[in-house]
Design a protein that fits this description.
This protein is an alpha+beta fold. Helices cover 36% and strands 14% of the residues. The longest helix is centred in the middle third of the chain and has 14 residues. It binds zinc ion (3 copies).
C-alpha cells in the first residue's frame, strides 16, 4: 500500500509551484537527468536510471530525498511532480516500498517525449521565463563544463580527495575536470576549494578552470532562480 508519507508528497507535488527547466538523456546509457525549480526557487536535479536488474531508480539531490524520503522508502515531491504532472502517469492504487514508481516502456517513452516538447506543456508545469533565466545563469557559472560527459575517465574510479569510489550516478555526485576529464565528488571538490580559499586547481592536471566555478558559485549548494 502507498504510505501516507508518499501520499503527502504526491499531494504537495500537485499544490506547490514546481517547474520543469530542462532535461538530458544519455543516448548510450539511457540515463535521464532533469533540472527542476522547486517551491523555494532552488534548482534540483532529478535523475532516472536503470539498475543492473533493469529496475528504474529515481534520485533527486534535494534535502528531502537525501535525508528523509529515501529512509522511509518514498520519493520526494520533485519526483512525484515529474511522474504525475510531466509524465502524466495515472496514480497507482498501491505502491510497494521496494520500487516506488514502476514505469513501463510506454510511460517512459511518453515521459521523454513530453520532456523534449516541454514548451507545449501547461504554464503551471513549464514556465518559459524561468527556463530562460536558468539557461542564462547556468551558462554564466559555466557549470555545464563540469558535468561528467561520455568521455569522462570513469576507469580511475576513485575520488582524489576522499579516496572513496565514485558513485555510478555521476551527474548528481561528481564534477569532471573540463581539461583532463577526471572525476571528483562535487562535495569533496567544494571542501577542497574552501580549504584553498578558492585558489583551486585540478588535483590531476593543475588546470585552473575550477576557479571560475567556485568564485562565481559563492559556495551555495543549490542554484536559486
Ligand atoms: Zn527532490
Ligand atoms: Zn570524494
Ligand atoms: Zn584536470
Amino acid at each position: 500500500m502507498m504510505s501516507h508519507l508518499q501520499y503527502d508528497r504526491i499531494r504537495r507535488s500537485k499544490q506547490d509551484a514546481i517547474f520543469l527547466l530542462d532535461s538530458n538523456v544519455d543516448t548510450d546509457t539511457g540515463h535521464l537527468s532533469v533540472n527542476i525549480c522547486g517551491n523555494s526557487r532552488n534548482v534540483y536535479t532529478v535523475s532516472l536510471s536503470r539498475t543492473r536488474n533493469e529496475k528504474f531508480q529515481w534520485k533527486c539531490n534535494c534535502p528531502d530525498m537525501l535525508m528523509h524520503a529515501r529512509k522511509s522508502g518514498c520519493v520526494c515531491k520533485h519526483v512525484c511532480f515529474l511522474i504525475y504532472k510531466v509524465a502524466n502517469a495515472h496514480e497507482p492504487e498501491a505502491l510497494t516500498t521496494r520500487e516506488p514508481f514502476p514505469m513501463d516502456e510506454i510511460t517512459l517513452n511518453q515521459f521523454v517525449a513530453r520532456l523534449e516538447n516541454r514548451t507545449e506543456l501547461p504554464a503551471s508545469v513549464f514556465d518559459q521565463g524561468l527556463a530562460l533565466k536558468f539557461t542564462d545563469k547556468n551558462f554564466s557559472v559555466g557549470i555545464n563544463a563540469f558535468l561528467p560527459s561520455k568521455d569522462a575517465r570513469i576507469e580511475s574510479a576513485t575520488c582524489p580527495v576522499c579516496f572513496d569510489s565514485i558513485d555510478d550516478n555521476l551527474v548528481t555526485s561528481c564534477h569532471m575536470c573540463p581539461a583532463c576529464k577526471n572525476l571528483v565528488h562535487k562535495t569533496c571538490m567544494e571542501k577542497y576549494a574552501i580549504h584553498k580559499n578558492n585558489q583551486v586547481s585540478c588535483i590531476y592536471c593543475r588546470s585552473t578552470a575550477w576557479m571560475s566555478l567556485y568564485s562565481k558559485q559563492k559556495q551555495q549548494k543549490y542554484m536559486r532562480l
